[in-house]
Amino acid sequence: MRVEKGDTINRVKCVVNSCEHYYNGDHCTASTIEIQPRNASNSGETDCATFSPKM
Predict the structure, then answer these.
(1) Beta 47-48 vs 22-23: how paired, if at all?
(2) C-alpha angle 18/16/35, rounded to 5°?
(3) Residue-wise pLDDT tens for the chain (55 aa)?
(4) pLDDT at residue number 49
(5) Are 30 and 48 in contact (CB under 8 A)?
(6) CA separation for the pair 10, 2 (Å, rounded)
(7) For 11-18, which contacts have Cβ atoms below 8 Å and span 24 or more sequence positions?
(8) Are β-strands 27-28 and 22-23 bridged in parallel, bridged antiparallel, or unpaired?
(9) Where are the domains of the chain?
(10) Would you say 22 and 54 are in contact if contact means Cβ atoms under 8 Å apart?
(11) Which InterPro entries match (predicted)?
């Protein structure tokens, strides 16, 4: 994950309760996130590569 100029990520909202990183209240507990692909032009073209199905 690339963070520039002292930016911090305090909270990521996630409503995908079938993901390993999902936490009650729609929070993401992953230490970093990766959104793909590089040249997406709208949100419909994006994908959360951090998604991991709950076991």
Answers:
(1) unpaired
(2) 115
(3) 443 444 445 578 889 999 988 888 888 888 888 999 999 999 999 999 999 999 8
(4) 92
(5) no
(6) 14
(7) 16/48, 16/51, 18/53, 18/54
(8) antiparallel
(9) 1-55
(10) yes
(11) DUF1540 (IPR011437)
